[in-house]
Design brief:
Layout lengths: L1 H7 L2 E2 L21 E13 L5 E2 L4 E2 L7 E15 L17 H9 L4 E2 L2 H9 L28 H6 L1 H11 L25 E5 L8 E4 L26 E3 L1 E3 L5 H4 L3
Parallel strand pairs: 7-9
Antiparallel strand pairs: 1-5, 2-5, 3-4, 5-10, 6-10, 7-8
């Protein structure tokens, strides 16, 4: 299959680059609490797995800097929150929010929910890497290696103090920015692990929203692999979001009449 794919599909092979904590700082086109994400988004990407774990049915490493890209492309140019909502360094990410809750939160701040394609572009850092931090699972890079805890669905759906206590019992999230290696080249933190994030669907899907990035108990979850199983009214103890916004025109665009 891969031999045929390499012959038939466009190949994206990025030059190796250093990966590590980075933050280029705010762009003049974005608010200071956001970072500019720009690049080409490929609708479909395929990698060559070199570490398949049969016990969990997941790949834990891919051949580095080798990606088969296919399908439509979209040019992404967006301002994205540095952190998961409430977008504050050291703050606890918001959870138990529906898609509508997330959209309302962003709208109240003159922002909007990020799209699936924007989120993937930010995560892949320009070379279509499978994980925000690179090409193989690094359990230490992000908050994504906590043990799973069985939840009480009735308690979570009860609302009020009962739900709050259950969330506290289950909580293994970390303050935003606590993992210095869990940041993209653009300075966006915690896309992998911590809390799963609502996005608006970019592909034809059953629902208008989907979830990205996994949470603290899913070390294998990567930049792709959208969770589209839940309706927009879904709320859960590990579901959060972040906001996006259209950037100001580039300087060359601004000079044009």
């Amino acid at each position: 299959m891969w031999t045929e794919a390499l012959l038939l599909l466009p190949l994206v092979a990025a030059a190796p680059s250093a990966v590590g904590p980075s933050d280029p700082g705010p762009s003049p086109r974005c608010p200071d609490d956001m970072r500019l994400v720009a690049g080409t988004h490929y609708d479909e990407v395929e990698h060559l797995c070199v570490d398949w774990r049969k016990s969990v049915g997941r790949c834990f490493a891919y051949y580095e800097h080798l990606t088969v890209a296919n399908g439509p492309t979209t040019q992404i140019d967006v301002c994205m929150d540095r952190f998961e909502a409430p977008n504050e360094a050291g703050a606890r990410p918001l959870v138990m929010r529906s898609l509508a809750d997330a959209e309302a939160f962003c709208r109240a701040r003159q922002k909007r929910l990020c799209s699936e394609a924007e989120w993937e572009t930010a995560c892949e850092s320009g070379d279509e890497r499978p994980w925000q931090y690179g090409w193989k699972v690094d359990r230490r890079a992000c908050n994504s290696d906590k043990p799973w805890r069985e939840f009480d669905a009735r308690a979570l759906m009860a609302g009020g103090e009962t739900a709050r206590r259950e969330v506290e019992r289950l909580w293994q999230g970390s303050p935003s920015g606590a993992y210095p290696g869990c940041v993209t080249k653009d300075g966006v933190h915690d896309l992998m692990g911590n809390v799963e994030e609502w996005v608006t669907s970019s592909r034809p899907r059953k629902h208008a929203g989907a979830l990205m990035g996994g949470f603290w108990a899913k070390p294998w979850t990567g930049c792709r692999g959208t969770n589209d199983a839940h309706a927009p009214n879904f709320v859960f103890y590990e579901v959060g979001f972040r906001c996006c916004k259209e950037p100001a025109p580039a300087a060359t665009e601004a000079r044009q009449p």
